[in-house]
Amino acid sequence: MTSFDQLKLELHRVCPGLLIKEQEPMRDHTSFRIGGPVALMALPQTTEETIACIKAARSLGIYPFLLGRGSNLLCGDGLLEHFVVKTNPGLRQLELVGETAIRCGAGVPMRQVACFAQQNSLTGFEFAHGIPGSMGGGVVMNAGAYGGELANVVVQTTALNEEGEIITLRGEAQRFGYRHSVFMEEHLLVLEARVQLMKGDPTAIQERMDDLLRRRKHTQPLEYASGGSTFKRPQGAYAAALIDQCGLKGYQVGAAQVSEKHAGFVVNKGGATCRDVLTLVDHVKEVVFQQTGFRLELEIITML
Ligand SMILES: Cc1cc2nc3c(=O)[nH]c(=O)nc-3n(C[C@H](O)[C@H](O)[C@H](O)COP(=O)(O)OP(=O)(O)OC[C@H]3O[C@@H](n4cnc5c(N)ncnc54)[C@H](O)[C@@H]3O)c2cc1C
Questions:
Q1: Cα-trace Rg, the chain
Q2: Is 229 a known active-site residue?
């Protein structure tokens, strides 16, 4: 009996109604549309089920991979020996706290939080409207755009630590940095976040969200599958500008291509493999280093 078989039995025992999938293709769960079958995936529908899944896995020495909306993820092509817990079917709380704060479950899409803020005349979350991830993935990555980032508005986060305890981290304790947080460092499961905003004019908020979405559609290759910006911004430069400067726009390996519209994106032109993307990424890194001296680092998380 494999450890995944044991885990399946344990999950059935502690969570009898839990939705479990075996050999589930990760390409169906990622915005890149790339990825082979994962050994075991749980789709808990509530916070209690989510926590029970994590605890069951850890009791057997299995480290679960926490999946949000898969919009920053590149998965390998072959069988993926992982236990994935998909957080966005559960963890869906979304409510006002007082007049200007929002309590958001980790599974709620950031777009939905932005719309909820607008409906409640709250400003400060417009920047995240077009980011396709969940609140959990956003907090872990400290997602940001157009001068805003979650670090500016997430005042506290509730998470599950390695010992299976629910902890609440406030302010500085969340250790947000550029595409970085304590949740990433310490592999914490983000359960929910408290977003602090300000009162604003709902029409102006809607206009700003619409404007940012228009700018995104104009500059980003949203017509293709991708994982968003492939590389982090190196200190003192922009990855897209460096890649462009090296003449790599349109460079292609198999069906993976450096987008012709935005050199910071690697797009899947249809049927790209993880190997295509990684070969292309290695080439881009090498050429950019040789020609500019900048070392590019992946922003996208890999599951291999
Ligand atoms: C077209 C496009 C545009 C994008 N634009 C932007 C942008 O403007 N700015 C930006 O910052 N990003 C952008 N992204 C990237 C992506 O949307 C963000 O990084 C987002 O925060 C990822 O959220 P997710 O739910 O999809 O996380 P996933 O991709 O599912 O996971 C990302 C990481 O977070 C972890 N994780 C997810 N949920 C949890 C949880 N509840 N607890 C603990 N760990 C968790 C995963 O294990 C993984 O390490 C873009 C992506 C695409 C495809």
A1: 20
A2: yes
Closest ligand 1 atom, residue 67 Cα: 30
Find the catalytic residue in 71, 181, 229, 259.
229
β-bridge partners, 104: 94, 193
Q: What is the pLDDT of residues 148-185, one digit of tens each?
A: 999 999 999 999 998 889 999 999 999 999 999 999 99
3-86: in CATH 3.30.43.10: yes
Could you give the dihedral angle defined by the CA atoms of residues 141, 146, 149 and 154, in that order, rounded to the nearest 10 degrees?
A: -130
Q: How confident is the model over 77-100, as a mean pLDDT?
A: 95
Please give the model's pTM, rounded to 2 decimal places: 0.96
- SS3 sequence, 214-263? HHHHHHCCCCCEEEEECECCCCCCCHHHHHHHCCCCCCEECCEEECCCCC
**Cβ contacts of 261 within 8 Å, gap of 6 or more:** 219, 220, 221
**Measured torsion, CA atoms of residues 119, 121, 126, 129, in degrees rounded to the nearest 10:** -10
Q: Does domain 221-303 have CATH number 3.30.1490.20?
A: no
In the chain, what are the domain boundaries? 3-86, 94-204, 221-303
Q: What is the DSSP letter of 109?
A: B
Clarify whether 179 is annotated catalytic: yes
Q: Which of 179, 208, 226, 233 is catalytic?
A: 179
Pocket test for ligand 1, best of 63, 80, 113, 131 (most atoms within 8 A of CB): 131
φ and ψ of 238, to 5 deg? -115, 130
What atom in ligand 1 is closest to the CA of residue 190? 42
Kindly report the protein residue whose alpha carbon is nearest to atom 4 of ligand 1.
228
CA of 85 to the centre of ligand 1 (A): 15
